């Protein structure tokens, strides 16, 4: 899943961005409010984490302006302000959640996963199911017939993205945007290589080609008729 993190404190940025990447997220960072708003308006993010106290534009204004432009990205506010009135103000501006600093990184990830589940219509258990596979997106675990399927973090993120959009053709560009960071060169074959590895692991479990290639368009998980 692709996230936007808007924060100007470099220590928090380093800690959170590294942690989110290790948790399997693709993360873009904006260091001030104006840049954060521009990125939120021009790119397709699965969720955003926005600090309230920022240079050039505060977080509440970012969210107000984004919502006015019909941006529906789920957004978590970060703030050192603990007053209930501040939380209410952030939520009324269009925020979906509010996390007070200092915070536990595990709680941030849990709240992000909860937002993503709600946005995708997934049950609160956090499970994604497809053709006998059951993915727990919170525990990062994939099961098939009660046996665990071992995936690398990027393979897990790719399958999660595909399972969130069954029967939909997902292009290489979409995968790059939501599973990889912009630091990857889109002319390389990293997507094809990852799809190939993942397809083999799923085939080893089912004997079926779960991920179908649509020539010139992308990849799709097809629901059996």
Would you give an account of this structure?
The protein has 225 residues and is of the alpha/beta class. The chain has 2 domains: 2-120, Response regulator (Rossmann fold), CATH 3.40.50; 127-221, Arc Repressor Mutant, subunit A (Orthogonal Bundle), CATH 1.10.10.10. It contains 8 helices and 11 strands. The chain has helices at 10-22, 33-42, 59-68, 84-92, 105-120, 153-163, 172-179, 190-206, and strands spanning 2-6, 26-30, 47-51, 75-79, 97-100, 127-130, 133-136, 141-144, 147-149, 211-214, 218-221. Strands 2-1-3-4-5 form a 5-stranded parallel β-sheet, with helices on both faces. It has a 4-stranded antiparallel β-sheet with strand order 6-7-8-9, with helices on one face. Strands 10-11 form a two-stranded antiparallel sheet. α6 (153-163) packs across α8 (190-206). The longest helix is centred in the last third of the chain and has 17 residues, at 190-206. The radius of gyration is 18 Å and the shape is elongated. The mean pLDDT is 89.
In short:
This protein has helices at 10-22, 33-42, 59-68, 84-92, 105-120, 153-163, 172-179, 190-206, and strands at residues 2-6, 26-30, 47-51, 75-79, 97-100, 127-130, 133-136, 141-144, 147-149, 211-214, 218-221. The chain has 225 residues and is α/β, with parallel strands linked by helices.
């Amino acid at each position: 899943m692709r996230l936007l993190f808007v924060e100007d404190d470099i220590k928090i940025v380093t800690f959170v961005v590294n942690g989110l990447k290790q948790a399997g997220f693709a993360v873009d960072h904006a260091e001030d409010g104006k840049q954060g708003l521009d990125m939120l308006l021009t790119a397709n993010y699965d969720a955003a984490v926005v600090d309230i106290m920022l240079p050039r534009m505060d977080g509440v204004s970012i969210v107000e302006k984004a919502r006015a432009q019909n941006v529906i990205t789920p957004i978590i506010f970060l703030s050192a302000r603990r007053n209930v009135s501040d939380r209410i103000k952030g939520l009324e501006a269009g925020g979906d959640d509010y996390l007070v600093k200092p915070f536990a990184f595990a709680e941030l990830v849990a709240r992000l996963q909860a937002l993503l589940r709600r946005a995708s219509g997934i049950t609160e258990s956090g499970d994604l199911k497809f053709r006998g596979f059951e993915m727990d997106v919170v525990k990062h675990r994939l099961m098939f017939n009660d046996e665990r399927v071992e995936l690398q973090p990027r393979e897990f993120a790719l399958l999660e993205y595909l399972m969130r959009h069954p029967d939909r053709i997902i292009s290489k560009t979409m995968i790059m945007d939501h599973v990889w960071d912009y630091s990857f060169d889109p002319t390389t074959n990293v997507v094809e290589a990852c799809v190939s590895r993942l397809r083999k692991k799923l085939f080893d479990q089912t004997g079926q080609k779960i991920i179908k290639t649509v020539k010139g368009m992308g990849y799709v998980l097809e629901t059996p008729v």
